């Protein structure tokens, strides 16, 4: 059995890492479910605030990965979310190369549904890219996409956590104005999605610097492929005001044509679970885990002929945990976030308020 974090979350194995932390596969000892859990691996106040902000952005939508609960132990903080076991669009591209237009249409439409909900909540994601578009293991059936990683998402009416000159986002997917430090706007997510569509069509990552796309060079005369190119053209304007909203793009005639394409019997794409079987002893089939009311498993003893002394108790650890969720799309009240902020910021000895005053 791996480490049990905060007496509740058994850490199974790391499944991803990034600037905001490491994502683990964990087993929740309260409900027995295997989940994903992001754990903070930085020790500065601005990173902590982004981490807490991500945990607080809860949008209940079928195409969004929504945080579920959080816990803190000493100087470590994690929050859990549903485990999406089919991998990401980035992994699909590595495995299959350029995706068929029918697949692109469905993935784009589902991403737009997620962005509709995000933008309606007054939030800009700021990091739409293939690695943040997860898919459920649906086999040869219709894909089910879920937008994840709100680590640098920002409500448009809240204070920013970066210096004015600091660029936040992934090169290649950011529009020109984002690279110049413009205020977050929903149109930036639409531009990023256009770059994702370009990558799904060509299996080539977009250039790191903003560059005009040779739209004419992408067209081949094939109606389905050209419909995908139409979507790239609609999202690629350097002028944010010229880009359609998520709702407008969902109604684009070219996207509607892509959604009407029939299944292709020669389609090779199969979405299966990408994670290995659970290790033995992690509460899998046939195992029973103690409930949260017993944060530490009862000590075991050897055979009667060879008794063993119980191990010494572990040193006390300060923990905080909250699993009661607010209503969808509502930030967690300050009274809930205060304990974890005071805990970690006190240990770091950093002035959080100074960061909140930065432009």
UniProtKB/TrEMBL annotation:
The organism of origin for this protein: Nocardioides bizhenqiangii
Keyword Kinase among UniProt keywords: yes
EC number: 2.7.11.1
Name the record gives this protein: Serine/threonine-protein kinase
Biased composition (Pro residues): 308-317
Enzyme class: transferase
Residue spans crossing the bilayer: 336-358
Domain Protein kinase: 9-255
Location of the region described as Disordered in the Swiss-Prot/TrEMBL record: 273-327
């Amino acid at each position: 059995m791996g480490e049990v974090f905060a007496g509740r979350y058994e850490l199974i194995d790391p499944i991803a890492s990034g600037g905001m932390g490491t994502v683990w596969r964990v087993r929740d000892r309260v409900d027995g479910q295997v989940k994903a859990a992001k754990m903070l691996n930085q020790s500065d106040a601005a990173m902590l605030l982004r981490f807490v902000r991500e945990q607080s952005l809860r949008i209940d939508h079928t195409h969004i990965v929504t945080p579920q609960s959080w816990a803190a132990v000493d100087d470590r903080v994690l929050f859990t979310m549903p485990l999406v076991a089919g991998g990401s669009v980035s992994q699909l591209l590595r495995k299959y190369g350029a995706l068929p237009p029918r697949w692109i249409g469905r993935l784009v439409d589902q991403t737009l549904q997620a962005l509709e909900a995000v933008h309606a909540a007054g939030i800009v994601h700021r990091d739409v890219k293939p690695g943040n578009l997860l898919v459920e293991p649906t086999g040869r059936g219709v894909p089910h996409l879920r937008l994840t990683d709100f680590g640098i998402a920002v409500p448009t009416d809240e204070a920013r956590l970066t210096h004015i000159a600091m660029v936040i986002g992934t090169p290649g997917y950011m529009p020109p104005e984002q690279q110049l430090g413009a205020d977050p706007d929903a149109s930036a997510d639409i531009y990023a999605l256009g770059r994702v569509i370009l990558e799904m069509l060509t299996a080539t990552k977009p250039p790191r610097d903003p560059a005009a796309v040779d739209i004419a060079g992408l067209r081949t005369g094939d109606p389905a492929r050209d419909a995908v190119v139409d979507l790239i053209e609609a999202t690629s304007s350097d002028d944010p005001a010229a880009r359609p909203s998520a709702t407008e793009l969902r109604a684009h005639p070219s996207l509607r044509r892509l959604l009407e394409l029939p299944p292709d019997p020669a389609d090779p794409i199969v979405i299966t679970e990408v994670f290995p079987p659970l290790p033995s002893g992690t509460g899998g089939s046939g195992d029973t885990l103690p409930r949260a009311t017993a944060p530490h498993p009862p000590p075991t003893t050897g055979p009667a002929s060879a008794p063993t002394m119980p191990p010494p108790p572990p040193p006390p650890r300060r923990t905080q945990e909250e699993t009661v969720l607010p209503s969808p799309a509502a930030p967690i009240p300050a009274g809930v976030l205060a304990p974890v902020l005071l805990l970690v910021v006190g240990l770091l000895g950093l002035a959080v308020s100074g960061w909140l005053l930065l432009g």
